[in-house]
Amino acid sequence: MSKIKHIVYLMLENRSTDQVLGWLYDAANPPLVNIPEQSPPTYDGLSTDFYNLDSKGNKQYVVKGTNNNMNVPIHDPHEEFSHVTSQVFGSNGSILTPLTPEPATMGGFYQDFETFNYFPEQIMQSYTPEELPVLNGLAKNFAVSDQYFCSVPTQTNCNRAFAACGNSLGMNAGTNQLEAWVNNRGTNYSWPGISEPKGPQFNQKTLWNVLSENGLGTTSDWMQYYSDGTLFEDILGLDGYSYTRDLMNQLQDPKFDAHFDSMDAFLANAKAGTLPKFSFLEPSWGLEVPFLLWDIGFPGTDYHPPTNLAPGEKFVQSIYEALTSNKDAWAETLFIINFDEHGGTYDHVPTPWGAKAPWANPADGTPSPAASEGNFNFDRFGVRVPLILVSPQIKQSTVFRAEGDTPYDHTSVIATILKLLEIPQEKWELGSRTANAPTFENVLSSDPPRTDIPVIEANSAGDESSLDRTTIPPNDIQLRMVRSLIAQAIEKKGLNEETVNNLALGSMENQKTLSELTRLFIEIMGKIKVL
What we know:
alpha/beta, single chain, 16 helices, 18 strands, 9-stranded mixed sheet, 3-stranded mixed sheet, globular, Alkaline Phosphatase, subunit A
């Protein structure tokens, strides 16, 4: 078994492998190691020969580099299940779900993004290693998978649920039935206009519940660290919140309160060498919008389009530097970085079929749902996203893939963590996808551990400015964050339902731009503060 004693897992937001790591290697500068072994080693990256057709039938080719514009794409691309279906099958807006293994053409990204009417070419732009040197530097100095896919061909919440518990099951408040979801839902707060539906979110057992049930239930065993409160939270006296806990119903018991702390605590513990066996990290969620003459909010460190990527790069750099600052602890640490989903950004690798439904075998612990949203059979994976492994126990310049026909997805991270923490597989009970997921502990093959600590620097030339955002619609994270902040403020004030109804929260859903949402948000927060 590996000598890893500290696992640190950071999940970022909404970027495909091609968009942020597409130019990591080329034929003239290939990787040094492939796992499984291959000679010569290869990396499935980008080529300027790749293209999509636009709505007029013209070829729109991949563009290398963004000229240090860190806000590409300026729109949050479509992420919903139907749009992802169009992106990967090139069906130009079709909401039909392929029910047979139809090959994914990866040809519909441009036309799907073109519906925003301006800057459509940005969907084919991709960042170079020089523009994103932190992600690319860690990938090249350690290990990256070029065959890792998000678990569901859709947006954030269902993929984060898969990363937590190996499924996206939850109660449908309208039917009171267990349903397999493919699109986002609101928060658990039941105030009108804040959440839909009002019932529990994803309600199955999580990775952290499994740890707690099997002798790893202390804060020395696992912690979740969330980023500091935003400007708005600080004004209200709030301390930020765990997005993951907000999503996963079985993490909301007060008995787990001690397992959640701030990123400041994580950084301090990392430098002191006192991290628990398993740490899960959350970035700050971007809400950078123009209001009158100022930028209101914060850019976020989550990499979520259309946020500026420079803060995200610096955030990842700060984690790496904190971990490597304590050499004794670093020698026994594995730092996992991945993205929850592609967020509508382009990738050329076809999404695979053959995914196993989480409830395929009831003995694996996941119940069968009464319904499946969108009639999806959960038999195909989502779009390819980055998976980077950083550890002194990893050989430099490694590219790794799963052996066999099943590729890596988010359940592979769950399965690998449980193996490294020596939880017997018969006690996982996190569904058939997790039970059969390929794992990557074999990438930890450097013995003795490396003593070099590669220097990773952020791009100082990154464009910190933003394009005009006054016409940009809010993305899913921004809407969810606004709902959650308002709900926390309501809860903190102890407001009654009649008072909350008078706030007209339902109008949030009608705000067509970030500016409109920000104005309404500030107005509602101002009313709450004086109540």
